[in-house]
Amino acid sequence: MEKRQLGNTDLHIYPVAFGGNVFGWTLDEKKSFEILDGFTEVGFNFIDTADVYSRWAPGNVGGESERIIGKWMKEKKNRHDIVLTTKVGSDMGDGKKGLKKQYILKAIEDSLQRLKTDYLDLYQTHFDDVETPVEETLEAYAQLQKDGKIRWIGTSNMSPERILASLQASAAKGLPRYETLQPHYNLYAREKYETQYESLALENGLGVITYYSLESGFLTGKYRTKEDLGKSPRGGDMDKYFDERGLKILAALDEISNQYKATPAAVSLAWLIQRPSVTAPIVSATSKSQLGSIIQAPELNLDAEAIRFLDKASAWQL
Q1: What are 81-122's pLDDT values in tens digits?
Q2: pLDDT digit string (tens) for 91-101?
Q3: Where are the domains positioned within the chain?
Q4: Could you say which of 54, 124, 263, 295 would form a disulfide bridge with 154 (CB–CB 3.0 to 4.6 Å)?
Q5: Where does the record place the NADP-dependent oxidoreductase domain (predicted)?
Q6: What CATH fold (topology level) applies to the domain 4-222+263-302?
Q7: Which candidate, 52, 172, 159, places its Cα nearest to that of 114?
Q8: Among 14, 53, 212, 241, which one carries the catalytic annotation?
């Protein structure tokens, strides 16, 4: 397993990132520590979270994931072994959201405190704030870089037009430049990224770290019928995938999985890892068996025929 450079940064990561949205939601602190231990013990080093994780869970207020990760890093004394990223811009309640400079300067202090660290390797715009000029947001990041609180910046859930405007502002005004893009992309959800973002990422040297890399569990193959929807908290919305294309993708995954003696999840992640524009998929696990698929994926070298087979089965073009 070889490290990959993340865009034009000096960050080098193994080609899977762990998604911290499950911490404080479907995983309690003890189980979160076990999964983080399992992920890092085999060499992975990239952990992705956000200030808003996991505010949506009953009784939560946001920041739960950051607190768990911070406590774990403090206990393990491994902060400098981890490439750590969190995000800003989501609605934290009580009017706390957006990308205005003063809000970002306050929000990062809260994140750093929860994460028990004094710097972030990567700080990402989570959701765009179209009421705020891109220059103001980038000026906030410039201040944070100057203060040594962040090293690099990235973006997610921003239109191609606003990303381009940001890149142009960075070049014109000497402001920090988005070096990474975090899009929704996987074997099922292909069209938006491939038509709107992929060329933008390649042309500008952006490191691409994909979210919903297993489409909320659909690409693991555990949901086969509508009767399977109660298998996890994410299952309730899964019936939308049981169309002709979704079933075709599952059948293709079964075939390649059997051929390579791997799980459908590992094959799905390997397909992403081998995409020319993708640096690393972000994926979560809530059990050691799920973690096994993540660990297997970077070592699963799909041949050109397998890639073509999966491409054809998941084709979105009419």
Answers
A1: 999 999 999 999 988 999 999 999 999 999 999 999 999 999
A2: 999 889 999 99
A3: 4-222+263-302
A4: 124
A5: 16-313
A6: TIM Barrel (3.20.20)
A7: 52
A8: 53
